Amino acid sequence: MVELADKVAEAAWKIRNLEDYDARLERAARRFDERMRERAEPALIVYETALMKSGRGEDEILAMVRDFRETFEDEEEPLTIPHASGIMNVEGDDWFFGDRDLRVLTGRLLGQFQHRVAQYNYVDEREVLRRWADGYDTRLFVRRRIHETEPVVGVVGGLDLRLFQYLRVAAGGNTLVPTENVARALGALDYEADDAYETLAHAESLALHLELPAPIVGELLEDLGREGFTDFPEPPAETSEPEDAVEESGVPSEGGDVKGGAAAQEREQKPSPEDRAARRTAREDPGRGDEPSRVQDPQAKDAPGVVEESGEREQASPPEGAREDTPGKADGEESD
């Protein structure tokens, strides 16, 4: 797991440090935003996904969807899932490239989501599709590689993992489509994916490390795979200092002989023989500590080195020019 996490982080670094990373990211985001603005009606999102099973080009399929919208769009009655389903039931197979199986598949998918919308009271159809696309149960069925047993879309049958993911992305899910170009781009980033499920897992993990929405990362990888891009930058090699390296400032070693280290400082702090003799003499002095100092007894009058404080205090003289008036006597009045 640690090795896989390191590989994902390294792949994210390589993409983020591409010389034209910002331009590629902007181009991918703009293209995805344009597609999502065009996918307004949930019924037409399901219709578009079903037509993708025909194997025709995406531009041709999107043109068919636009024609359907322009033909049956009504300001008074929007193309809700029930309304679009009713139109497709009475129209011919021309709206499905002449393939009746595509028409049946579209009707079943619309029926499943119509039932899903009925389960959510007062919730918009678009929000119902988004909740399905990003729901925990949906993601769990994909993660366990049993998307064909998913109870909303999987049970209909006819959609492989790629189309299943195509519908999730179109519905607003935070995921991507594991196309061949995406797998090729991941291979250039030293990812080895055995199938579409692993491709999807690696790409979604890469999106988390890039801190980008998964559909935009899918568009980014799609471009890299289509170009066959392999010239990714290499991350700088990690450099480690030798364990026995010693700083010039003097890091103490086990021997204690490093210049400026703790052992040398300890030797410098040891007193000389003369200092030790003077300290010994001071400790053995019999008169040491007999007389309290002024600090020891601040009330002592005979503390050595302090001027005697006995006697009366000298009366403070009045300031010059000041009159010594007797309290209670007015000016010019003689005292008795």
Structure overview:
Residues 239-266, 306-314 and 321-336 have low confidence and may be disordered. The protein has helices at 2-16, 21-38, 42-52, 58-72, 81-90, 100-119, 125-134, 136-143, 161-170, 180-188, 196-210, 214-227, 262-269, 273-284. It is mainly α. The chain is built from 14 helices and no strands. It is elongated and about 120 Å long. The longest helix has 20 residues, at 100-119.
Work out the strand percent.
under 5%
Distance between the termini: 112 Å
Report the strand count.
0
Structural class by secondary-structure content: mainly alpha
The ordered string of helix (H) and strand (E) elements is HHHHHHHHHHHHHH
How would a crystallographer describe the biggest sheet? none
Shape, per Cα inertia axes: elongated
Mean pLDDT: 81
What's the quaternary structure here? single chain
Number of distinct helices: 14
Q: Evaluate the radius of gyration.
A: 45 Å
Roughly how much helix do the residues carry, as a percent range?
40-55%
Q: Low-confidence stretches at least 5 residues in length (pLDDT < 50)?
A: 239-266, 306-314, 321-336
Task: Show the helix and strand layout.
Blueprint: H1 2-16, H2 21-38, H3 42-52, H4 58-72, H5 81-90, H6 100-119, H7 125-134, H8 136-143, H9 161-170, H10 180-188, H11 196-210, H12 214-227, H13 262-269, H14 273-284
Helix pairs in contact: 1-11, 2-12, 3-4, 3-6, 3-9, 5-6, 10-12, 11-12
